[in-house]
């Protein structure tokens, strides 16, 4: 039977039940008509499947292989590598009977402070889209679906469940939506996860323009839209907007709300039917994948070897004065706890229970290299430990080379919390500084998921950025340090010199009600280059133990596409790989533009002296911007520069092409958009930002005395209510309830404080008996009312508090 026929056999109660999960990880079955249950699992860089051991909780996961996280995978600039990761994960998922992997995570890195940047791919939408499409192809070709997340404009962790991202249409279309669009159109993603946040005032889970008008009607998406876990506000509005599946289960609460809405005529049952048909189609796809697959098996040992293989390409050599690769017979000391206990993944929903973890110290010893090790610092403490430091400094002084393994501990980089600084912990920076005073040959190996400042950069001899390289990272580090592997990673994000240099510095994390994307299209290198800001390391940058030469650029139009050919030669003495990048610089006529934007790349592997011709095809979108006056893509008339290089700032080859587009009147007159034509966007005046939005700027913060609603967080409620003692009592109670569960995936206790304060009231007690009565009672209580609901809540609060 077709999905439509199966849905026609369901009762209203069955349909209302189907659009909510069975539990935390599974969809509901309807055995009466042969619909089985299927399971989903977190999976951007490893399968986090719930353990089936007796007594296991929602956060207890099976042992599996942890691969490099998104930040490192994107740095590989290797579509084949991330596609192979997709294939590998699909095989593991199939063997564990997981139907959908919750990934890839493809939100743009608006600020380096975002606590979840380790999971995301890039600051550049083209690179993010290309890598995500390759990942999707690998997963879905093997009978398992992906779930693209988080749709859309979910670019911070602070207030992610309550804030509204205020973004103009052009920026949305050019920066924050293209990666999703590419994967939907090119790779046919089975599902998309809507984000927690509001977008321009409307929750993403209720945003019809986002979930239906753009995703389905414009892009042709035919899959299932799934809520982020707990992202549903009004379930009936969500169905009308195109949200098919609520996860996790909300018990019978929303099932009853849907039945009541249909019965009362507030919800057309036909809209519910459409959601059910999509869910049934997803289930049928999954079951068909199981049936068509060979007997699913995988080897954790073989996958661990792949984790090592992937980690080799995800590391970026940032500096090298010639000390690397290290001589194996030198007197070398490894300093830093991460040499023995590497930080290889981030905290949060993607946290893997790893199979086995390589460390650089053991890997070096296994290579037959006599390396001394001293701890130097504790990753659990940011304060300088004199006793540990003295031992490390003495060891460095007596060595030929000191290799310091530094990085961000779990508590400083996690889902649910944004960073507040770009600095490494003070004990690590201080130790590195003191070691360089006694050892000129100091190498720093970084383990972090996003950029950090390096006040000691001018004093060290080399820096290797390992990102969060998965469980094979330690072996890969040792292989690169000692020259058995030639580093080939390139930065998929800019490393700024200081936090104050970042484009959204004045508008991150924003206000109590909104976060304003005043910088517009100027994200990452688009900003730094147009604003002429110096950076520590530019986008696309990465060194090698060999050198590459570029030559013989030619271009030819093939219909609407421009075909580029050029040659890359390995001019050094070691085999290596180069990620050649193609940028386009647009003329300014109708609109302002960045100085350049990535529109193509290819990675090529070359033996010493070998050269290869690279072909890159640019489609018409490479020469277009989003014209808000036309609500469509448009081109400037004039000369476009084609720039080919080893990074966004290291351009090796250039050519130009003419495009004869309609001139048209300016979309953005310079007199109204001065800041955007110069990229002076850190402090855009209100009138300019309002012009960019095309609407008045929404209210940023609540006012004292305003009525509290169920969509307010306790943080917002505290700013509104006049009942100080009441809100204080509620906050105390909420903080006491938000505590780490058994085997919690969040190691920073501040996560639970922020979760208590930033979650909307409508999330409280979801699925519990009489939850709606409890929430409405809380609202009345905070608004100073003496209603029966308020008294009911007060009785619950003080009885349990």
Describe the overall structure:
The mean pLDDT is 94. The protein has 24 helices and 28 strands. It is α/β, with parallel strands linked by helices. 32% of the residues lie in helices and 18% in strands.
Primary descriptors:
801 residues, alpha/beta, six-stranded mixed sheet, five-stranded parallel sheet, 32% helix
What does this entry show, briefly?
This protein is α/β, with parallel strands linked by helices. The chain contains 24 helices and 28 strands.
Write the layout of secondary structure elements.
Elements: H1 3-8, H2 12-18, E1 40-42, E2 63-64, H3 70-75, H4 79-95, E3 100-102, H5 125-140, E4 145-151, E5 164-166, H6 169-176, H7 178-187, E6 191-194, E7 198-199, E8 202-203, H8 208-218, E9 224-227, H9 235-241, H10 253-264, H11 269-292, H12 300-313, E10 316-320, E11 332-335, E12 353-354, H13 360-366, E13 371-374, H14 386-398, E14 401-407, H15 426-438, E15 442-447, E16 462-465, H16 473-481, E17 495-496, E18 514-516, H17 525-530, E19 535-537, E20 548-558, E21 561-570, E22 576-585, E23 597-606, E24 611-618, E25 625-627, E26 632-634, E27 638-645, E28 651-659, H18 674-678, H19 686-693, H20 714-720, H21 724-737, H22 750-758, H23 771-782, H24 788-800
Parallel strand pairs: 1-3, 2-12, 3-4, 4-6, 5-7, 5-18, 6-9, 11-13, 11-14, 14-15, 15-16
Antiparallel strand pairs: 7-8, 10-16, 17-19, 20-21, 21-24, 22-23, 22-27, 25-26, 27-28
